[in-house]
Write a structure and sequence with these properties.
The chain is α/β, with parallel strands linked by helices. It has a single domain, classed as NADP-dependent oxidoreductase domain (TIM Barrel). Helix content is about 40%, strand content about 15%. The strands form two sheets. The protein has an eight-stranded parallel β-sheet. The protein has a two-stranded antiparallel sheet with strand order 1-2. The protein starts with 6 loop residues before the first strand and ends in a 16-residue tail after the last helix. Bound molecules: NADPH dihydro-nicotinamide-adenine-dinucleotide phosphate (NDP). The site of NADPH dihydro-nicotinamide-adenine-dinucleotide phosphate (NDP) has 27 residues, from α9.
């Protein structure tokens, strides 16, 4: 894969913009405006979820843009209590209704919830949604290798993506290696480490920024893209929405990539997937 590509091809043949805008914790009363501004900047990929309670605002902003629906890539995620054979399809219908769209580009199981053990039957329902074309692609989120192995052994469809916490301090090498070997695209959430530790102040990041005339956030986003990740940083700041999109006009050197690789410290900022049930 060319690291400078702006798009990736998923294992089902669909195309996804490698860079998007994540709307976790963007308040519903600001979200529509935020997405409209992001569309003006050039974003066409939006990552929402049922639990974010802003699917309706994302959908309204897309419709208000006047740009054809097929030029957008919209992801949503099934919230945990809705897992199960009887409840998943209804929750999916609710997402489509909230988004005001006939299909989502990607629908994910948000967390595996291994103790509840419903993800296999939930996946069967998602396979049906994909067969109907109402979810163009289907995938999972927060799945570790044992969860993926079980899903692959049971299901007919290999997930198109696994969306996991991934940033220089928490690179999840075993999960990413498994995904790569099974053609599952890796989506990196919390790509900037959620600001939970001073990733953007790390000398390796700051120095690479100085070398290219780029900000630390642009360097980290670029690191993800060169690693092959799909990425959608969140910001409530319009200037940063623009800043985070200006990452296709430079390339980190091998040495700069390695210096950022070396920031790994097992620094998870979100929940361990086995702990969410
Ligand atoms: P991010 O790593 O994207 O970090 C967001 C933080 O970084 C915010 O505090 C933001 O502040 C700050 N920030 C953004 N851009 C810049 C910049 N250019 N310079 C300095 N600071 C910046 O964390 P998220 O958790 O939001 O992850 C991104 C997306 O991933 C989410 O929106 C969601 O779509 C998805 N996600 C999925 C999860 C899952 O379980 N599947 C879990 C968590 C996230 P400010 O807003 O003030 O700019």
């Amino acid at each position: 894969m060319n690291a400078l590509d702006t798009h990736r091809t998923l294992n089902d043949g669909h195309t996804i913009p490698a860079l998007g805008y994540g709307v976790f914790k963007i308040a519903p009363d600001y979200c529509e405006r935020a997405v409209r501004e992001a569309i003006d900047v050039g974003y066409r990929h939006f990552d929402t979820a049922q639990i974010y309670e802003n699917e309706a605002e994302v959908g309204r902003a897309i419709r208000a843009s006047g740009i054809p629906r097929e030029e957008f890539f919209v992801t949503s995620k099934l919230w945990n209590p809705h897992q199960g054979r009887e409840t998943t399809a209804k929750a999916f219908d609710d997402s489509l209704r909230a988004l005001g769209t006939e299909y989502v580009d990607l629908f994910l199981i948000h967390w595996p919830m291994p103790k509840r053990d419903l993800y296999l039957e939930t996946w069967e329902v998602l396979q049906g949604l994909a067969a109907e074309g109402r979810a163009r692609s289907i995938g999972v989120s927060n799945f570790l290798v044992p969860h993926l192995e079980r899903l692959l052994a049971h299901g007919d469809v290999v997930p198109a993506v696994n969306q996991i916490e991934l940033h220089p301090a928490h690179q999840q090498p075993s999960v990413t290696a498994f995904c790569t070997s099974h053609a599952i695209a890796v989506e990196a959430y919390a790509p900037l480490g959620q600001g939970a530790y001073p990733l953007l102040e790390e000398p390796a990041v700051v120095e690479a920024g100085h070398a290219h005339g780029k900000t630390p956030a642009q360097v980290v986003i670029r690191w993800h893209l060169q690693r092959g990740h799909i990425v959608f940083p969140k910001t409530s700041n319009p200037a940063r929405v623009r800043e985070n999109f200006q990452v296709f006009d430079f390339a980190l050197s091998t040495e700069q990539m390695r210096a950022i690789d070396a920031l790994e410290r097992g620094g998870r900022v979100s929940h361990h997937p086995d702990d969410i049930n």
